[in-house]
Amino acid sequence: MSHFTKPPAPADALRDADAFRAAVQLVNPQLYSVEERIQRQAKTFDPALEGYVSYIVDSGGKRLRPVLALLAGGATGKLTSSHVDLAVIVELVHIASLVHDDIMDGADLRRDQPTANAKWGNSLSVLLGDALFAHGLRLSTYFESNTICRRVADATVEVCSGEILQTQRRFDLKLSLTDYYKIIEMKTAALFAVSCELGAFLSGAAPEVITAMREFGEKLGIAYQIYDDCVDIVGKEEDAGKTLGTDLQKGKFTLPIILLLQRAGEPARSEIQNMLLNEDAFDADALAAHIRQTGSLKAAVKTAAQLIDEARARLQQVPANHFSKALDSVAAYVSSLLAPMGADA
To answer: CA 196, CA 201: separation in Å to the nearest integer?
Structure first.
């Protein structure tokens, strides 16, 4: 398991980090199986493609979606090999989306190593992403229940549609909060939600429990994307392990920026708009300073924290056991990552 952005040092944060590690330990045997299965997927492609696919899928990562799928399965029933299959599928779809993200953002670094597009160019990389999407959907057809395949396909369509909507609205200074939330619900929260939902579905959970798990995943996914958006502005690349600042430079206006545009007065707003729209005028440090000074970063962090509280409340409808407690610990850890950014704002 690789790191999130490095956790802060205070005692509460260290406690939450320890609880997160304990949560992952609950499903470690299954996670090892997931990792082995993911790495084996490269051999299912044509030999001429195996090296490319292997590079992409072997790069590690947080594997947060597999963790959620497995913990959701354990919280609502008995973990089986089907949960491992689900975890592999959602991670392949996620990896494919990252390949496409890096192409569109022109990112050179992902998980502390060169991105596929940095190594082989955009044309080959976009086809690799397409192949991984298709492969994940192919694997989902092996489940006996058509519901699994349909929901995975639905989530994949949502991820791609969210990216399209975000691309349509690049450099759009009139992007509303409603539109922003719609985009991140699709591009990020959809896979969080389906991981938790189908984890519970495979365990034979009651419909209301499956719904609660889906809502937990969706709210956690939205909060996590807001956290990631804040990191892109005020984080450090050596901590994040990926290229930062690409969202703004590529015209992807996220929650801190939308709030900044709403809060800034003249003449600051005109200066900010000029920086956002003109590459030559772009100044990441100056934008970050404006975001902090207007309280926009703190407001974004507060919004994400509220969503995490709402997500944790959904767990009240899930049987109380070590796995549901672990899901709560995952949410608490994401909240602890947000806290120092809010305090620093």
So the answer is: 9
Alpha carbon distance 10, 8 (integer Å): 6
- In the numeric block, the tokens 């959904």 are attached to 314
Domains, the chain, ranges and CATH?
18-318 (1.10.600.10)
> How far, in Å, CA of 14 to CA of 276, rounded?
36
Q: What is the pLDDT of residue 284?
A: 84
Cα–Cα distance for residue pair 67/209, rounded to 1 Å: 18
Helix, strand, coil percentages for the chain (3-state, nearest 5): 80, 0, 20
Q: What percent of the chain has pLDDT over 90?
A: 68
Give tens-digit pLDDT for 75-122: 999 999 999 999 999 999 999 999 998 888 888 887 778 888 999 999
Measured CA to CA, the distance from residue 324 to residue 22 in angstroms comes to 13
Q: How far apart are CA 266 and CA 259, in angstroms?
A: 15
Helix axes 190-202, 146-168, angle to 10 degrees: 170
The first and second tokens of residue 344, run together, are 């620093």
Nearest to 215 by CA among 138, 309, 114, 333: 309
How far apart are alpha carbons 118 and 331 in whole angstroms? 33
User: What contacts 216, CB < 8 A, 6 or more positions away?
Assistant: 196, 311, 312, 314, 315, 318, 327, 331
**pTM of the predicted model over 0.85:** yes
Q: What residue has token string 């974004």?
A: 300
Q: Which residue has tokens 């493609």?
A: 49
> What does the buried/exposed string (b/e) look like for 51-85 if buried means 16 or more CB atoms within 10 Å of the residue's CB?
ebbbbbbebebbbbbbbbbbbbbbbbbebeebbbb
